Amino acid sequence: MRPDDIPAIRSLDLFSDMSEDSFHDLVRGAYMQTFPPQVDLISEGDPADFLYVVVSGSVELYARWNGRETSLSTVRPISTFILAATIKDAPYLMSARTTEKSRLILLPSQDVRDVFERDNAFARAVVTELAQCYRTVVKNAKNLKLRTSIERLANYVLRWSARNGGATEFELAMEKRRLASFLGMTPENLSRAIKALRPYGLEIDGARVRITNRTDLELLAKPNPLIDDFTT
Amino acid sequence: MRPDDIPAIRSLDLFSDMSEDSFHDLVRGAYMQTFPPQVDLISEGDPADFLYVVVSGSVELYARWNGRETSLSTVRPISTFILAATIKDAPYLMSARTTEKSRLILLPSQDVRDVFERDNAFARAVVTELAQCYRTVVKNAKNLKLRTSIERLANYVLRWSARNGGATEFELAMEKRRLASFLGMTPENLSRAIKALRPYGLEIDGARVRITNRTDLELLAKPNPLIDDFTT
DNA sequence: CGCTATGTTGATCCATATCAATAAGTGTGG
DNA sequence: CCACACTTATTGATATGGATCAACATAGCG
Known about the structure:
The structure is a homodimer. By secondary structure, chain A is an alpha+beta fold. Chain A has helices at 6-10, 13-16, 20-28, 83-88, 109-118, 120-146, 149-163, 176-182, 187-196, 214-221, 225-228, and strands at 31-35, 40-42, 50-56, 59-65, 68-75, 79-81, 95-98, 102-108, 169-171, 202-205, 208-211. Chain A folds into two domains: 3-144, Sandwich (Jelly Rolls), CATH 2.60.120; 148-228, Winged helix-like DNA-binding domain superfamily/Winged helix DNA-binding domain (Arc Repressor Mutant, subunit A), CATH 1.10.10.10. The first copy, chain A, has eleven helices and eleven strands. The structure holds a DNA duplex.
């Protein structure tokens, strides 16, 4: 592993509080690897051999059943994924693939569990991280069950606008087909949802998003911190 | 709090490994309360003042948005709910109400957080619990996004059959309207889904469930441990 | 520059929601 | 213990959100 990547990892909430010794034990067995786009990293059902850290690029978490596939989340730098499976030593519930060229750190799960047993600060950091993950998925479930696809799209756009400092114009962070799957609809349906939101102050042209009337869009979207706030 | 309830709590995975002192600190400020059915315990958005333990009865976790409501899970004895909000000192994401007469223990969140900071065994137990919760919600999201309502119903029945030791005949654990909401459909649609599954070996009469042809039902349901297994 | 994957649009179909009416429980007070 | 009221469940008719299928356009990319 490149020595100049270590500080970035160390500064993650998950690793920042642990002892120097523990951190050393973790990174000793770790490797950094660069993957091309569209590479399958893990497959649901596999044993959790590694905890992954996305250093650059992005990784899609998705799942399949009975020939269908759905996108569950996108992991962006710098954060980890499949912590729960690693800690529980249980099979992955989601598959993962790179969406673009990405640099990842692979931490052997056994090392993570060993350090977890020894280092109390790390154990507490894991709690915070897992609680965050849990709340994110709960929000997701609420979003899916309480909103129509058009409402989900409208709120998605408002969420990303907020994430971009309230910008009225920005770029979609992923392909539309992936966005459609993430929002729980087909690509065709997303196309139509986009058109349906034009009268409500939203224009999407290619990857370019323009909020032309925030008031109307919010009136329709009714964003709610208990579903849409990504900070708590 | 009644002294004879303490051993039951103590034996929960979440509390079994912690020191005697810490446990004492926790239960010292706790109270046990009995609630009638349909009592609202907490409301989403409220600060997380207590961690709850269901001792008897059952509690429904649900959420609202824009006049719609959906049931997210049912908590049965003996387990806790809203651990994540308690630990993070963040607002509840879900509301909770008793579905029947229920005995609950209320542990002041501040006490839980204090003990969490002091007791390392407890901190680790919280990790295991949260990882479990997280994986359950992920399975739920997969269930919702990958399956039709009929498939969800079929798998729900098979799951509860397994939970009852593989019984072919058992009682529904909740009202149909609640089940419909939990499965992400309307009560009317549940009624029709039940009828649609009759030719596939499932009969539901009132609360009585009878699996008349497990092979056919499984052929349709295609249960999958990465969605339906409630033990891992 | 042309191939291939992605995105759009239209036509149609299907799953599920909604609305309405009835039936069946369930609990309460007389 | 029954009658009434009220909630829950079922059934039918209809509407609609969203999926599917098919054709075409477009954009990346080698």
